[in-house]
Amino acid sequence: MPGRSWFVAAGDKQEGPYSEDEFRDLITRGNIRPDTYVWADGMQDWQYAGDIPGLLSPGRAPPLIPRPGASAPSANGDQSGGSLSIEISIWEMLGRALVFLIGFLLIIPAPWVAASFYGWIISRIHVPQRGYLGFTGNPLDIWYVFIGLALLTYVGGVTDIPYLSYLLFPLQAYLSWLTVRWVVANITAEGQPLQLSFDGSPWIYIGWYLLLALSFITIIGWAWVLTAWMRWTCSNIAGTRRAISFNATGLETLWRTLVFSIGSVLIIPIPWVMGWYTRWYVSQFSASERLS
């Protein structure tokens, strides 16, 4: 429909109206991505730009140039892949994060606040061509894991045993590995279990956990360790026909995490930097066609 007006959702704000030519110019400049919410006259509801047939077709948007190591788009124009995105309110994010923290400090509520938090945040994640995800994890599935993780937060602060926190570090890593397996196994889409599994070795996972802790000695090396760890984690998610990848670089992880940390220290910017960082982090995960 020529001459219609377009609106774009940018964070918690609405931008527009844009004329058809202005909107096409935004697409050409890369300001409109597949995970951008848009609306125009005649549409019943807001939609992701990537879900509107023909909107981002070749000739209207610049070609996608994959990062080094990322999967290239298929030659036949298959658009079965793309970056994940998340729709969250910064205030709800802050509130749920505080409940999560308080629940772990109180220990007993830890399984319930953890399951609630994971279920909420996963339900806000959108996967291209699949829609929003869901979560079916029950707090009692692995209640002992969350109780153990909560108890470990007190180790070192309430005991005089030298180096006890370091000795229990592998146990904390193992409990984290169990959490990842539980979360991945309970992800759903369109109300149906995806039957995913995390097949990464617990010993390698513990190794990554220890390496990350040691990398803080280098001041900045942890960012590259973290990105490599995320790529390893994604490569060990099985049960999906599409490959899951983590595309951020170490440098991107470094400066964005530093900005998030500084904003958190200043307290007042916490809701905004938390929402900004979470949206960016989720967008670094993508699902693309597996290369045979």
Automatic annotation (TrEMBL):
Keyword Membrane among record annotations: yes
Keywords from the named record: Membrane, Transmembrane, Transmembrane helix
Domain GYF: 6-55
InterPro entries attached to this UniProt entry: GYF_2
Transmembrane region(s): 98-122, 142-159, 204-232, 253-274
Keyword match Lyase: no
The organism's place on the tree of life at top rank: Bacteria
Name under which the protein is recorded: DUF4339 domain-containing protein
Organism annotation: Afipia massiliensis
